[in-house]
Amino acid sequence: MTSAGVRLEGLRRQFGSLRALDGLDLDMAPGELVALLGPSGCGKTTALRILAGLEDADSGRIVVGGKDIANVPANRRDMGMVFQAYSLFPHLTAAENVEFGLRLRRQNAATRRQRAREVLELVGLGAHGDRYPQQLSGGQQQRVALARALAIQPQVLLLDEPLSALDAKVRVQLREEIRRIQLEVGTTTLFVTHDQEEALAIADRVGVMRAGRLEQIGSPEDIYRSPATPFVAEFVGLSNRLPGRVTGDVVEVLDAKLPLVGAVHSGPVTALVRPESVDVTADPTGTGRVVAVSFLGPTARVTVSLPDDAIVVAQLESARLPELPPGTPVRVILRPVPVVVSP
Amino acid sequence: MTAPSTGTLDQVTAPATPRGGRRRWWPRRDLLGVLPFFVFVTVFLLIPTLVVVIGAFGGDDGRPTLDNVAALADGYIVDAFVRSITLSAVTAVLGAALGALIGYAVVTAGPDSLVRRLVTSACGVLAQFGGVTLAFAFIATLGLSGFVTVFLRDSLGIDIFSGGVWLFDLPGLVLVYTYFQIPLMVIVFLPALDGIRPQWREATESLGGSTWYYWRHVAGPLLAPAFLGSTLLLFANAFSAYATAAALVSQGSPIVPLQIRSALTSEVLLGRENLGKAMALGMVVVVALVMWLYGLLQRRTSRWLD
């Protein structure tokens, strides 16, 4: 298998009045798994389909393995693709589905069968080769679809929200499987999703898209801890929107001075503060009051009402819940981590 | 139904076996809803079929005989069956091919498109547009004095009847039957076309397949059972059609339904009612054979479907 680097340069695509891609640039190193994350209509699926050759870009370059493939038809791009759902051929068994691409490559029957067995084993379905798609669960079908895409040893693997049709538990299991397999086979992979948890959990890098462009791309930790823009801060994870004032290179919020992400003009702003950057302690003289508590297992969310009707959510260890029942007067403390602000 | 089945529903609706072990004789209340259906099927299908079967094996004196069934081998009846089967097969194949193409065009126009709504509405009407009205429509347009015939003859010098008055014989029946077979095909084949998912084409492409490969190895095999099943349905539809042919063909009885009419209503040859029933039995056998093939196709596709 030869994993290839991918470069998308200035991709533009317009559907009528809708601008799906507005000069998208993306670089992927060989063997890397990049997740494109964004809300519906941000252009992430369009980008993937253009890379697959299933859509044409209005302009821009698509370079895979050093070659511009913008004019290469989809069936000659050597890419494996897994769709949201229902992409298995229903009249073929799981093994025949996996062999489909190998048959197109004129591999002999013995080689096809051997390869199909290998990749079905890889996805944990070695014993299910003779089943028809409708005899498999949704998760198993997606595993077969993954096996089918991997069987042809593609240069690039494209995953178009492959977990979105599955229930929560299967989704978590399968995304870990996808990551394990991707690391094992080392194929350059573009994973499109609207689920931030999914993107952060399995990607080497996450690209957050908005209105046809990359808003930010970086490691999952960077994206979460150092969002470059208010959009990223709000789209990835939860954020408290708290009024503040920028003075120099800090923002004053709830009597705390927090460092800023990026340069911002002085003046009133809204600071976006993560719940885990907020601490709450019971204090009879505190100005806040606990209004709700949500138990989340090892952690808990405590919602605090502040004067002027402001609301702040803190994420704490759930062991501290007994000291913070609803109605408790509390003091809110912000940890000095860099925050993003919006005007 | 006397034998109660186990299950919560029985226990809720009524105790299936009254105390003392006596079984009740009346039907379960939850079957009452389908009673009209069973009555309908009994009155309009089972009893007529029974009458046909008994009549086919009965003589004028009411005694059992094989004469009527043996008469099915007579030349003119065999010819009528051959013509009926030919007419049905040709119009089924023509209707299926053209209807499938129209259906495909409709599907590619999008699920909510105006084209789709127009075509499906028109097909719904045209598929039922048989009988005297259809025959008249063709006579008025393509008959000896039909306006298209007159226009072609007077304006373009083309005489469509130079080879004979084909409209009132088998070729005419082929044309007229095809007219209602095409829209019927569109209606019955559209769900199968709708069931073809765009992801299958894209998956084929991403795996390296061409459009031809997709049709040959994916869409073709998936649509084939529905296509053949629809064709069989069209065959049965044409084979059992009567009113259109009766209105169009005034001389002779080229097809079986018209032969049956002749056997039942002829004022020249009397006492052939049971021969008519034997011919009807022959038709039942042909349609049953077609439906058996249809069932085989359904069984083949059932394992592919959700």
UniProtKB/TrEMBL annotation, chain A:
Gene source species: Asanoa iriomotensis
Pfam families listed in its UniProt record: ABC_tran, TOBE_2
Sorted UniProt keywords: ATP-binding, Nucleotide-binding, Transport
Protein name per UniProt: ABC transporter ATP-binding protein
Coiled coil regions, renumbered to chain: none
Phosphoprotein in keyword set: no
Superkingdom assignment: Bacteria
GO molecular function terms attached to this record: ATP binding
Lineage: Bacteria, Bacillati, Actinomycetota, Actinomycetes, Micromonosporales
TrEMBL record, chain B:
Recorded family membership: Belongs to the binding-protein-dependent transport system permease family. CysTW subfamily.
Record field: compositional bias (Polar residues): 1-11
Compartment list: Cell membrane
The keyword Lyase appears for this protein: no
Superkingdom field: Bacteria
Membrane topology recorded in Swiss-Prot or TrEMBL: Multi-pass membrane protein
Entries under InterPro entries matching the protein: MetI-like, MetI-like_sf
Alphabetized PROSITE patterns for the sequence: ABC_TM1
Region feature (Disordered): 1-21
Residue span(s) of domain ABC transmembrane type-1: 81-294
Keywords: Cell membrane, Membrane, Transmembrane, Transmembrane helix, Transport
Protein name: ABC transporter permease
Transmembrane segments: 31-57, 85-107, 119-152, 172-193, 214-236, 278-297
Organism: Asanoa iriomotensis
Gene3D superfamilies hit by this protein: MetI-like (1.10.3720.10)
